[in-house]
Amino acid sequence: MMRFLTALAAALIWSALAAAPASAGDKVVLMLNWYVYGEHAPFYYGKAKGIYAAENIDLEIQEGRGSAATTQAVAAKTADFGYVDVPTMMRAAVKGAPVIATGVLLQTSPMSAMGFVEKNIRKPEDIKGKTVAITPADSMTQIWPLFLKKTGLKESDFNTVAGDGQTKLNAVINGQADLLLGYVMDQSMKIKDATGKDVYPIKFADYGINMVSSGIIANADYVKANADLVRRFMSATTKAVEAAEKDPKGAAQAILDANPKGGKIETLTQGFELTIPLYRTGETKGKRPFQVTDQNMTDTVNLMVEYGGLDAKAKENPKAFYTNDYLPKGNS
C-alpha cells in the first residue's frame, strides 16, 4: 500500500509539473517613437520569430506619441526601453533626464525635402521658386538652415508654408506645396498611401549633413541595475534587425499580424527597405547593427549644438549620451 501511495504521489507531481506552463521570460516594455510604420518592422519580426523569447524576454511593444514623450516615459521608468530620435533624447539628457542610448540604429540621417516624382524636383537647385511645407521647431526644420548653407540656397529662393505634421502632409497631397521636410521612410510612405503616387526625397545626408537618428534608449539607473537584461535585450534586438534585413516583406507582415490596421503591406515593406541603408555609415559598414562610432556621435552633438538647440555644455562629453558596452560583439 505504501509503495502504491508513493507511486501515486509521484505520478500526480509529475502530471502537475508537465501541465504547468514554462516559466515566463522577463517582461520588457519597448515604447516606439510614434505610431507604427515600416521602420519599426524588426521589433515585431523579432517578437514573432521568437528571437526575444530565445533571450528569455517577454516583449511588449507600445506605440508612442513622439520621441520627446517616449524619452519622458523612459526617464520616468514607465517604459523599460524606448526607440527614439537620439538627438531629441540628447536635449532631455543634457537637462538632467537620466537616459542613455544603448544602441544607435539609424546612423545616417533620414531627413529630406520630398515631393512627387512627377514634379521632377531632384536636386537642391530645383527647389528654387517652389513652395516648401514645414513644421516649425521640429527636428528637420531646425537642421534645414544647415542644408540651405551646404547647398547654397537662400530662404528667399522659395516660399514656405507652416503647419503641424498632418497639415504639412496635406499641403503636398492637395498641391498647396511642392515639397515637405520629412523622413525618407515615413512621410513619403504616408503620401503614397494617400495618393498612390511615388515621392522623390532630396536627402540631407547626401549633402554632408552627418548625424545619427533613431536608436534604443533606457533609463541610466535601470541599465546599471539590470545589466544582464539590457545585454540580452540588445542581443535580441541586434539579431532581430539582422533577420529582418534579410526578409523585408516578412518583417513588414509581422507588423500587420500584430496590428492589422498598421498600414499596407506594400508601403510598410518599401518604408522598411528605405530604412535599411540608414543603419550604417562608411565607418560601420560590415559591422553589426547599433555599433555607432565615437566620431559620428561627436559630429551629431556638434551639429545639434550649432543648429538644433542643444545646450553647448553637451560638447564637453559626447560619450555621456550613449554606450556600446551592452551590444553583442563581432561583425555582420
UniProtKB/TrEMBL annotation:
Signal peptide span: 1-24
Keyword Signal: yes
Location of the SsuA/THI5-like domain: 39-251
Superkingdom of origin: Bacteria
Protein name: NitT/TauT family transport system substrate-binding protein
GO biological processes: thiamine biosynthetic process
Keywords, alphabetical: Signal
